[in-house]
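Teaching note: in complex prediction, the entire set of molecules is handled at once rather than each chain in isolation. The prompt given to students was simply: 'Predict the structure of this complex.' The entities are:
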Amino acid sequence: MKKVAVIGAGNSKFGVRNDVNIAELAFEAVKPCLEDANAAAKDIQFVALGSVGAGAWYEELLPAVVTGEYCGLTGAGLVRCEAACASGSAAFFTAYSAIASGQADITMALGVEKMREIDNATSMEWIGRAGYYMWEFHNFGMTFPAYYAMYATAHMAKFGTTEEDLALVAVKNHKYGSMNPNAHLQNKVTVDDVLSSMVIASPLKLYDCCPLTDGASALVLASEEKVKELGIDTPIWVAGIGYSSGTANLSKRPDFVGLESSVSASKMAHKMANTAPDQLDFAEVHDCFTIAEILAYEDIGLCRKGEGVKLLREGQTEIGGKIPVNMDGGLKAKGHPIGATGCAMIYELTKQLREETVERSRQVPLKNYIGLAHNVGGTGHYCYVTILRR
Amino acid sequence: MKKVAVIGAGNSKFGVRNDVNIAELAFEAVKPCLEDANAAAKDIQFVALGSVGAGAWYEELLPAVVTGEYCGLTGAGLVRCEAACASGSAAFFTAYSAIASGQADITMALGVEKMREIDNATSMEWIGRAGYYMWEFHNFGMTFPAYYAMYATAHMAKFGTTEEDLALVAVKNHKYGSMNPNAHLQNKVTVDDVLSSMVIASPLKLYDCCPLTDGASALVLASEEKVKELGIDTPIWVAGIGYSSGTANLSKRPDFVGLESSVSASKMAHKMANTAPDQLDFAEVHDCFTIAEILAYEDIGLCRKGEGVKLLREGQTEIGGKIPVNMDGGLKAKGHPIGATGCAMIYELTKQLREETVERSRQVPLKNYIGLAHNVGGTGHYCYVTILRR
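The expected output is the structure of the full assembly:
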């Protein structure tokens, strides 16, 4: 297996981006990414695009072609990768494998999503379909807040988690989101703000949910030879990747207090990287809802089952704590353009590991120089975990 | 780079398959494929699904999850790959890379598409969007027959290709399709049938166009170690893969007599395989329209530019000729379920290289035991070329 490094990273501004089309939005990430990698668009041999909403949220059915062309990438091998909300990580895995297998020297993982062109009801339908259409959605009318509300209720019943605990996730992630100029939501919130916000699917309220976001994120990956050739100072190495999937028929799940696919994918990534959860300096986890961040702490082994809330209450997942989590604001505040999210997590790992987060107050202290990104599709229908090391 | 072999192949019946849902259709390919590979569903570590129409032609937005679960593949890593009509080959590339890089030992490439649930006008819109939506489709209203009609007209003007020549492609592919029990169209046609069929986009007539097809195709891939462990008699090795892309803005193309991405992808695949076009025993090429097969002959080097028609007129691409092409009936007669087509081409390579095509009259004679699959997305927006060797 050839060694592969992330050598460039770029993000667009996340938010409601009806000022740009999907190709222009992608360009906002690709341009700084290529500059960061000291590479030209024509150097890129293969591009894996993470994007879900082709023909649904936005009009282009072939976003890889159209965004690729606008960014000058025509001629490279192209594929669009879809793994629901983990599409960005799936694209990263694909761009990584093309180099690790020896087929390419320099590739790009690009994530882009436009979710705000259409009305909210249609949006909710599309997101609802990202479960098991014929089962949960079509027969029972469940959409995503309802799925995660079920997990929240079970976690509260079994471990005594409270609505205030869920709110702590929002408070933390909005706090760090306010330090991230690319974040969709940059307002700070209090526990009271969260608790008094509109109920969406009890016990989840508006501020327990991530926003629907437009955004793009790009990464350039390179082989060891290419890293040398381009004179990259601080390559960030891909140490491990893990993947798994879970049943889409929620009635078949053993319980609702964790996601099996997160557990498996995390173990697989650590095995490949030869690391353990307690060696991580920080993590990005999939907080599409506040409860999801607590499940993630437990599923990826940042604490034991049922102790996620303890980490939160003690502030262990903030800077100064045991393991800072979601220092870019997470999906909750940075926003969740579903095809781009996985790449944006790896963007944050790269910038943190290089100690160049623009906003120094959210730079995590590094000891082992290892970070992890945990990206879930659906409610654990897919999971990808990526470990980077400086 | 680790060696990778195709060790199992399965196809569903192609056609109008409103008798099954997308998961059931996939199962028709996955079941024989796993049996062929002497493997169980739970053995598969990673699944790459080629499928385009999620939320467009069919309802499921996450077909990888739903088909994977129905086929017992839950727990494996999952991704859906979209490269328009080359999606099946893109999925194969992804499943291949996961092994070649050393991350997995046994993976599956699965292609599935259901295109016949919706009305024809909506279908044409979706397919039309698989160009450059905002440019060709939205501004000029062009759909796929029109794109390829432009190529046909240019080829006729430059090289003296005639409508009868185009018809010869249909006659040949329907002939071999009639020997393939899985093919969508199993009727033979004459040159007169083709010439007198309804004009779709002049000079292309109904019988110059492939049908809209439902179908699935599955392949199991394995590392050298796994091939031994499973006791596979006749592994079919992946010798080379090439990929490229072309501008989606047709006004930027240098000419309309060939697809640059086909030329590049073919060269790349041969370079990796250390082979040349004249070493091929046979090929599967992307004949979505009759003109496309002639372009392919020339683009992938089966003959010189402008001499494709000579190959056809002399019967060189039939059994007994220099290089048999599309012995399964091609997209033209076997049908073109766009996400499955790439996998179905590689299925045919596998069966031919093992000399076990059920219908012996379409078994090609093998000398070098090398076959090639050429799979185009859009009008050369994407191209993937795969070379297998026994």
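Point out the following to students. The first helix of chain B runs from residue 22 to 37. Chain B touches chain A through 64 residues (CB under 8 Å).
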